[in-house]
Amino acid sequence: MRLVAITAAIVVAGGAFAQEVAPTDVSYGEYGAVEASLSGAPGNAEAGAEVMSQRSLGNCVACHQVSALGDVPFQGEVGPSLDGAGSRWEEADLRGIVANAKMTFPESVMPAFYKSEGFIRPGDAFTGKAGTEPLPPLLTAQQVEDVVAFLMTLKDE
Amino acid sequence: MKFTMTSALAVLIVSAPMAFAGGADDDVLSIDGVEMTSKVAAPPALAETGIDTAISGWHFREDDTQAMQTDSFDNPAMLAVERAADVWNTVEGTEGKSCATCHEGPESMQGVRAVYPKWNETAGEMRTLAMQINACRTENMGAEAYKYDGGDMTAMEALITVQSQGMPVNVATDGPAAEYWEKGKEIYYTRYGQLELSCASCHEQNYGNYIRADHLSQGQINGFPTYRLKNAGLVQTHNRFRGCIRDTRAETFSTGSPEFIALELYVASRGNGLSVEGPSVRQ
Question: What ipTM is given for this predicted complex?
Fold first, then answer.
């Protein structure tokens, strides 16, 4: 059983993604930074912009205003504007903030997008019914990398 | 992150893409010409929260939604109130009684909504208004209990609530209520679900701010039951709690559960002093 699961995982993951880091294995620095790519591959900024805008994906604009995503309606004000985030932070910082913002900002209301367990009354997505940990993280390793790549393009003028 | 009206306006002018900005408005809520206390100095339950004014959710809604609540003829919830007024006089159950048999007219219920949830000494339990309605039905009328959040129950709640419109919410939190209140407070500050958000994350730390298209209020319950335009129907406090917890990607509690009874008491106490405003209208 175990053997089958492992080989299946290798087949699915394939060459480029072989070094994917599981949510429970992410290593955070003292201030919450994550040095290495979670997927083992570089991110795609254009895909990242999509993840940040879509309600069903990252929905980052629910809380953050991003001028570069100006055509996305109803940008929220719960978190700070992300304009210039790529100048304020290193790539490793941004990866850590997206994966689990509480490692950088303790008590933050910002959800952890790459975390699978340790929740109180975890649900099955938005059904209101119980979910079973480990839950799929809110974003995949590659989606986190895509978002980080997009954030890195948000430079001060 | 609290915006005052002036800074909100500044944001609106400076950043063109943002079509809105936060804060409670300065409008006055009158229902059929009677002015409501929709903002009041923070009651004791808000001590240590940093909130100095309890504010009705009405102040965070769009003008057209607000307007529907200012005149009973425009308030779609009043249809349910009328329906319940008929039920009030209808004999049901094995004892051959109606509500009117014991209570005379619905106006005898004035002041009731304002103090619920309330400790019931005889039963030795904390009772929400819905629980009290069902206790009357089963024990005094020999009738069947209503479904906790069904249409009949919510309509009857609305009829009873409207009798207290304009009176200050005044739930007791001491004596036997204290342990329920503590339990409710603990739930209020627990960060549930995969999004790890508590009631306080949205309604204490961020009221006045927009979360996507939603303008966050303090999550007060002085307007319940509420006619929600989105559902085209009346919803109860516990339905709203469920929806908010579900939105954190958590397993919710059930309507009528001990957890929600405690939470209702606690949340009600955060609005002590606000006028009973129900049935209100929300988007």
Answer: 0.91
